[in-house]
Records
---
Amino acid sequence: MLYHGPVWVPNEARAGDAKVVVEFPAKSPFRCFPTALPVMIVAGANPG
Amino acid sequence: MIQPLRWLVLGVLVTAGLSTSLFAQDGPSGRGGSRTAKKVERIDFDKVPRTIAKLPALRAEKPLYGLFLFGLHGEKQVWCVLDATKSEPGCYDVLYVDLDADGDLTDAGERFTTEEYDESRSVFQIGDFVDPGLKGATHTEMKLTWTKDSFRYSMLWRGGKRTFGCFGPKKEVYAKLGSSTKDAPIFVPGYDRPLEFDHWLSGKLTAGTSCDFKVFVGQRGSTRGAFSSVDDKFLPQGQAVQATLVYTSAAGKQEQVRVQLKARC
């Protein structure tokens, strides 16, 4: 029931609050309310 | 000149992207591409009335309440009240569903009983359900399940694709029925309205890694755990969901990474 895929989080991303805006692509035949989902970025093993 | 343009584009994206109103899905399947004349807005759950005009005499020690919104604007309220034939704690074998959304739960045909129940679980088969808000729409195989830890519902929207719930970013926040109308969760099943999204176990991302970002597609409810989803076969093959990670770089600038979520599970 889920739609998913890899999201690359750059090394330079600062740890803390961020968001993922989810929507249909511009050419999609489906209508949506783009949704800003709050996420947390944590530092990786090799912080830039 | 590049930097101001970049911020202008980002501003337009955020402003347009998070607009609170849109146009309805076209046609009875809710799948059409062209826009209809009907403007549809995000539902303001704080403005939804929390009263039931007429209730039957309830026998359960602790009746439980949930509310479904139907209609393109969520204007039709269908209350569900879980009750029992006996006043034994924890056993629910009666369900009232305000099928015609008139606020009167004493109407004939709105009391459902089940033999499929025990102290931990009750399953109610409602069957066909004539939508009180969408003219000519009948949903089929409507089923509601209560357990001690959850509330689940499922139906074939307009007899077609499945819509079900309730979901949220993690199982711990999945909505449960409320002990009163005031704390009843509100659900918005179906896909005639513009769709919304929530993530599943994807709230923590690690810098310098690739994270599998998972989303539900459907309708937001009154809480994060009251999301009504479509299934992973809803979108035709080749159609994807787009996700844009907006983050702050080490230099303090707002940056973004855009991807297509093409996989399904």
Note: Chain B touches chain A through 69 residues (CB under 8 Å).
---
Amino acid sequence: MTNAGSEFRTCPTTGLKVHLPAENLIKANAVAAVVFLLVGTVMALLVAFTRWPAVHLLSAEGYYRALTAHGLNMLIFWIIFFEIAVLYFASAILLNSRLAAPKVGWLSFLMMLVGSLMVDLMILQGKADVMMTSYVPMKADPLYYLGVILFAVGALIGVGVFFATLVVAKREKTYEGSLPLVVFGAVAAGIIAVVAIAHGAIIYIPTFLWSLGIIGPIDPAMYRVVWWGLGHTSQQINVTAQIAIWYLLATLTVGASPLNEKVCRSAFVLYILFINLASAHHLLVDPGVSPSWKIWNTSYAMYLAVLASMIHGFTVPASIEVAQRKKGYTKGLFEWLKKAPWGNPGFSALALSIAIFGFIGGITGVTFGTEQINIISHNTLRIPGHFHATVAAGTTLAFMGVTYYVLPLIFRRQVVVPSLAKLQPYFFGIGILLVSIGMTFAGSYGISRRHWDIAFTGAPFQLAIDPTALLMLSVMGIGAILAFTGALMYILITVFTVLIGKRPA
Amino acid sequence: MEENKELAPRGTMVLAMVFFGSFILYYFLNWKWLSNLWYVR
């Protein structure tokens, strides 16, 4: 229902006031996110089929190219486009407000789109086989760095529109009292995004100038320290946005409300204060930084960010349990869980996201973040095993789950083939779980993190590979097929829903 | 009072304990693996 003479409509199901320019920007960012997810997903399968020794699909050159494209399309483009959509949703829609400066929002979107297309073009042309970290002195084409800078500045402008919308909502009194918890979480994600993107600008602008030959060489140690301020912190935007979505999905799927809002908000503040320092765990075996710097940042500061994750990891399921018990599911310890709406893809995606993020991603992350233990896990396949549980399972599953609510609310379409949508989170979640377990255990047997050929064929030494590692790489390969299927189901469902989904009556 | 008892998230508390148990086990195993590789005399 569109309100006559205004730029708003009222959603007949939720009663939310939807600002139409905000709605259009959410749609554009969400569609771009799904397109880049498709690119990243295809690259994921190519990478997995090369790391799986039984298949070993690509040449060395093709593998590193696909790995670079996979990292950037999944970890940066898919997730940040989606996050910008989430920020606009959390500010304009959840606060019943108009979006501040929609034209600036479009400028942000265009910059991000042009930047990401430039990056992908450079990678696919073989002019940027530098992997996501692009550690100097490896040099890519200047257009690659320019693409990253354009994307980052575009995203920063988008975050600025989000903060400006919060000011508009406050000034125009579109809500009462404090910001809702979900919006508060989005604010935390926005603040962390500013920190991440500032690090990106600090390191990518000189690297761009270096690639043009305007300035001299970049110090590799300095590059690594500053780059991880972007590389890891950007993943913490994901975690923070993902947790804000957990609270939203818990409310939407079972009607849960936070057990203690103050504790949940404090946990978000812990993220803002400490999660950036946790970036240091990427440099635990780096000779360029001192042991005291490493230990302070990882064995002290990082644990305060971990504490925040544990608080959220407890309060979200606990709020679901209380909501279920209020409905009468009080028998024993787990009737509330058995009777949960497992057929609702929003709920199954949420439950799998929490379980895999916490049990696999959380436990491995804290363990590898210990300086002494890092020496045996660094640069092995255990590291991608960890972050596939956090980012691929935790964040991506949460984003997939909320999509099933965004499609009817923002795109005003009923989800097509609901029976397929019911299965989708299971395919993706179980697939990523196998990928993560396979990688983690193969890495425990010393399989390297990124190398194209685990056997080091042609090397002057013979490398003995434990058969268990090969078995675990097969588990990873089978998981990759399942996860690919789940991601493809998600992409097809969303595309067909947007194109041919029925409009709600 | 009785109703509040029924609403207490006891199941989540059990899951949290399983989580801590798993964490302790994995953390211990990693120190064990480290000690096998890195001898201290």
Note: Residues 9-177 of chain A form a domain with the Four Helix Bundle (Hemerythrin (Met), subunit A) fold (CATH 1.20.120).
